[in-house]
Specification:
Elements lengths: L4 H22 L19 H69 L6 H7 L9 H16 L13 H18 L19 H17 L7 H26 L13 H28 L5 H27 L7 H24 L9
């Protein structure tokens, strides 16, 4: 399989969004994170809300899509035994390191330096305080999805499916949104499964896009996404982000914030549908545009791409340490986010690169 440079560049873009997404939550955007320094009210929160809501609509789903796309040729090239052992190494080992080492470290940084608690990092590790998958719930889910695919692979479900037209894409987005709305009647936004950290209010999209990643490889869907198609879907996404979402919140805020997260409310239905129409639009748009404008790599881009997975693993303690270190800098939270965003990205990629210099680490990340 020829190297698809635009997908490597998309990985750099997506992992950068992950870092910035969590940094935005630190400074007032809605969401759950290890360290929250500010809580913004409406309408101050709107720019940060547009950013994190747009990210949430597509970026983790696109990670599942891309991961599944490369899963199939990897399995065919390596065979079941080698594929399974390497998947356990590349997914299982980082997951365990994060759960038992990096997550307690991240919690310790918050408790010790932000909250002023006199605690010991060694004690956190030995007593397993703060353990959990954190953002590596994605790695956990990817491992689960991969093994489910291994189980159903003998069924040889490799149908020839052409790239869907606009009507079919919109129907898929609508049905996905409706299913997620139904799930949120019982499991609202913010709910996560104990131990695993799986947020089922978003999982319909993740399961669908992982499945479509396999279908996309089997049917060579990326070739069907043209730059012109990407441009049209990008315009649609901007309308949804800059016009539809603000209108949805302005009209629905009289019911309070909670009505958007779940329950039998039109606001929850509207947000669930908006997420899918926006997410599908952004995925197609970025695929087409990156194929045209970012389909080559120099030395710097290759290094960034090769470090992206390590960034995903280490970014939590890195950005929490940065935020805690600058907690006394009194400035309007959104401005603080914008000022620290380049530092957070640079620090995350630098630490990830340094980690990869440790002997043996490159086999894992």
């Amino acid at each position: 399989m020829n190297r698809l440079h635009y997908i490597d560049n998309l990985r750099i873009f997506l992992i950068s969004l992950v870092v910035l997404h969590h940094l935005a939550i630190t400074y007032g955007a809605p969401g759950s994170w290890y360290y929250n320094e500010a809580r913004l009210g409406f309408p101050d929160i709107l720019p940060m809300l547009l950013f994190v809501a747009s990210n949430q609509s597509f970026f983790m789903g696109m990670f599942f899509l891309v991961s599944a796309f490369f899963l199939v040729p990897s399995l065919e090239r390596k065979g079941t035994g080698r594929f399974t052992s390497e998947r356990m190494l590349r997914l299982g080992v980082p997951l365990m390191i994060f759960v038992f080492v990096l997550s307690p470290l991240t919690v310790y940084l918050t408790d010790r330096f932000a909250h002023g608690q006199q605690v010991s990092l060694v004690d956190y590790w030995l007593r397993m305080y703060g353990i959990g998958p954190g953002p590596l719930w994605f790695v956990e889910a990817l491992m689960l999805f991969s093994f489910i695919y291994l189980a159903v692979r003998p069924l040889n479900l490799s149908w020839r499916i052409p790239f869907p037209g606009t009507a079919m894409i919109l129907l898929a987005a609508f049905l996905t949104g409706m299913l997620q709305f139904i799930i949120r009647l019982w499991l609202p936004l913010g709910w996560s499964m104990p131990i695993t950290g799986f947020q089922f209010p978003y999982f319909v999209q993740y399961i669908l896009l992982f499945t479509l990643g396999i279908v996309a490889y089997r049917n060579n869907w990326p070739d069907a996404v043209t730059p012109e198609m990407g441009r049209r879907w990008f315009i649609a996404a901007q309308v949804l982000i800059l016009a539809v979402l603000p209108a949805l919140f302005f009209l629905g805020m009289k019911g309070g914030e909670d009505v958007f997260g779940g329950g039998l409310h039109w606001q929850s239905l509207g947000l669930a549908l908006w997420e899918q129409f926006t997410g599908f639009s952004l995925i197609i748009a970025l695929t087409g545009l990156f194929k045209k404008y970012f389909n080559r790599q120099g030395t710097a881009a290759r290094r960034l791409s090769g470090t992206a997975y390590a960034v995903f693993i280490v970014h939590a303690p890195v950005i929490v340490a940065l935020s805690v270190a600058l907690r006394n800098w009194d400035v309007y939270p959104p401005l603080k986010f914008m000022a620290l965003a380049p530092l957070a990205l640079a620090a995350s990629f630098l630490v990830a690169w340094l980690v990869k210099q440790v002997p043996g680490v490159r086999r894992v990340v």
